[in-house]
Design brief:
Blueprint: H1 11-29, H2 36-58, H3 62-88, H4 94-120
Helix pairs in contact: 1-2, 1-4, 2-3, 3-4
């Protein structure tokens, strides 16, 4: 993480942003736009993935970042579950469902791997350093 200076450089954030854009396109291009509750839920959860990655990164410490990545991973699972409802209600076809479900699985797996990396790294953040 030492060479990454901005959350925008993180692959998991970039993938999350793409998934969020894909969800927004579905909202605007299908009748999902009139299923207000589901529309708001999936729009919120898909945005929460990228937002929690960004917020955790900006906290400047692996402990907090790890926690926010866990929240992002949870939001990714929530989005994936909502994709099933979007598919079951026939807002998207099977091909689009599989594409987006697979994207969410990749994000989840890469987020888990990054969390494991952070657990092994010694950097805990500026606020956790003891004064000498």
């Amino acid at each position: 993480m030492a060479t990454i200076k901005n959350f925008e450089d993180l692959e998991i954030w970039q993938l999350s942003r793409t998934l969020c854009q894909d969800v927004f396109e579905i909202i605007n291009e299908t009748n999902l736009k009139v299923d207000y509750k589901l529309k708001e839920q999936i729009n919120g959860s898909s945005g929460s993935i990228m937002d929690n990655i960004a917020e955790g990164f900006e906290r400047d410490g692996n402990k907090e970042f790890h926690n926010f990545l866990s929240i992002a991973k949870g939001s990714c699972g929530e989005t994936r579950s909502q994709l099933y409802r979007v598919y079951d209600r026939k807002y998207i076809d099977e091909e689009k469902f599989k594409e987006l479900k697979d994207k969410s699985l990749v994000i989840s797996q890469k987020t888990s791997a990054f969390m494991k990396y952070l657990e092994k790294d010694d950097y805990r953040g500026i606020k956790y350093k003891k004064d000498n």
